[in-house]
Amino acid sequence: MDIKRINTIRELKEAGYQPKSIKEEVRRNLIKKLQRKEETFSGIIGYEDTVIPDVERALLSKHNILFLGLRGQAKTRMARQMTELLDEYIPVIAGSEINDDPISPISRFAKELIFEKGDDTPIEWIHRSQRYGEKLATPDVSVADLIGDVDPIKAANLRLSFADERVIHYGIIPKSNRSIFVISELPALQARIQVALFNILEEGDVQIRGFKLRLPLDILFVFTANPEDYTNRGSIVTPLKDRIESQILTHYPKSLEHALAITEQEAGVEEEQKQKVSISDLVKRLIEQVAFEARASEFVDKKSGVSARLTISAFENAVSAAERRSIISNEKQTQVWISDLIGIIPSITGKIELVYEGEQEGPFQVAMNLLDKSIRSQFIQYFPNPDSLKKRAARKGESPQAVDNPYRSIINWFDKGNNINLFFASNDREKINLLYKIDGLHPLVKKHFSHANEKETALLMEFILHGLASYSLISKKILETSVEFKDLMGSMLNIQSSGAYDDLDEEDFS
């Protein structure tokens, strides 16, 4: 059908146009995509075997949908992508406020126009991108906003009484007729506003003031809700929830690989930064692990959730921290070091909600603990587990240094009173030179990663220091301008003599 040549109802009928509901339209287009093995929702990673099949089943059943999940789980994004399942163009009565179908009009305006002009009634075509409405539910949303109300200005301009149907100003829902309409954070709507949606969902009609009005609206509704809202900010009234046919549970990435792919896809790193700053797979995994640690932390409110936006902004901040350092030190190229991850702390503190114990600990300290736990969790994926060495030594009644310990030379170097300060503003060469001073560090990396180049080797050397500190084999202290590594026992004695214990965890004294 060449829509450019169809401008009236007559031409539309001659072309064989048959009206269909939006849910039938979505169903047919979804079936075509499934038959062709095409991707139905692009860029939605980790939902291939869980959420997406549920959504496809709901759309095939011609259901309205409620996405239920914590923040940052791509609920609204999936709803917005549903427009790709609409026909590219549909015809509407020219000038209609509510996208009247030329063959099945519902508004008084469209019916009167057709009565006057018959098959010569002009039509226009709207693209699927225009067939999407969205409203963020807030407590101040009114029935007038969603459904409509009497417009006194329109009544005055048209010289009509308030009893005339033509004085009605339609809300966003009627204007979304033949479209997808999304209400985000549904529980935030006041109960009386939710009640106003009953008839629209069940019978498809609206009620405005005292008018005897029936508009059989044709809308695919998608709602989103956060489980936290059910207890803290309101609830979905039971009869409304009963009218939403499919409730689909969303979730956070279940694997680190999915989380890595999401961050890689969403992070807004400038091309200039990509050319100047390299970021290793190790550092990427450390950043992602922070979110996994946060979701399991006793300091973080699990009902609030930890959005994927945490790792996206942390990734961006890590790259920017390395870029800033390279600019200051006049380096043309650099990499993200472990010490650069101090720059992701603002991304963590701004993205987590703390329980009472977390508030007592403080946002900064919680964020530092999460980063340290991330290092601890990932360390054993690259190097031998220090805990297993401790357990083996305990079984033999020996010290960890006495058993076959791959970290013995490194720990002994610090035990001799040596220490290093890795300054945040140091250039790559200065960092590398410092790291090579530590006995046993370079041979250990080469033993496990023989093909690593110089910078990769140096990064792994730094990683070992942070890992050993996280397992309480050496001491790590974060200062304003650097991170200091030294022997554990000496640090403990110094802290005991000064009475300052703030920089060590409980396990440092075990």
Please describe the topology of this protein.
Elements: H1 9-14, H2 22-35, H3 51-60, E1 65-68, H4 75-81, E2 89-93, H5 108-117, E3 123-127, E4 132-136, H6 143-146, E5 148-150, H7 152-158, E6 168-170, H8 172-175, E7 179-184, H9 191-195, H10 198-202, E8 219-225, H11 227-232, H12 238-243, E9 246-249, H13 256-266, H14 271-276, E10 277-278, H15 281-296, H16 309-328, E11 334-335, H17 345-349, H18 356-361, H19 363-379, H20 386-396, H21 408-415, E12 420-423, H22 428-435, H23 441-448, H24 454-470, E13 475-478, E14 482-486, H25 488-498
Could you say what the CATH topology of the largest domain is called? Answer: Rossmann fold
CATH-assigned homologous superfamily of the largest domain: P-loop containing nucleotide triphosphate hydrolases
Strand order of the largest sheet: 4-7-8-1-9
Supply the CATH class of the largest domain: Alpha Beta
What best-fitting shape do the alpha-carbon axes yield?
A: elongated
**Whole-Å distance between the termini?**
77 Å
Number of helices: 25
Uncertain segments of ≥5 residues (pLDDT<50)?
Answer: 495-510
Mean pLDDT: 88
As a percent range, the share of strand residues is 5-15%
Q: What count of structural domains?
A: 3
Tell me which CATH architecture of the largest domain applies here: 3-Layer(aba) Sandwich
**Fraction of residues in helix:** 40-55%
What is the rounded Rg?
31 Å
